[in-house]
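Q: Given only this backbone (86 positions), what sequence would you predict?
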């Protein structure tokens, strides 16, 4: 039997996130919750300082590279996270 962290929600996840107008941080938090993870877990896995990670996702700083890394980790496109049409 699969646990939540063993499931791959990515195909449906991108569709759900695309329909949402929520801020990137909210989208990332929700996606990570499906995997039983926190934003702190992801920041650590990506080798990023949590304050920088948080500032970028909350729009206080810019980092295209961080968005690319976060999107790749979630298995979705950057455009979905930042509310741009694909």
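A: Predicted residues:
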């Amino acid at each position: 039997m699969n646990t939540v962290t063993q499931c791959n929600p990515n195909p449906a996840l991108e569709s759900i996130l695309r329909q949402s107008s929520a801020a990137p941080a909210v989208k990332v938090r929700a996606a990570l919750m499906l995997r039983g993870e926190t934003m702190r877990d992801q920041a650590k896995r990506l080798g990023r300082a949590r304050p920088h990670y948080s500032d970028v996702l909350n729009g206080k700083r810019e980092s295209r590279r961080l968005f690319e890394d976060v999107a790749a980790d979630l298995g979705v496109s950057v455009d979905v996270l930042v509310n741009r049409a694909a």
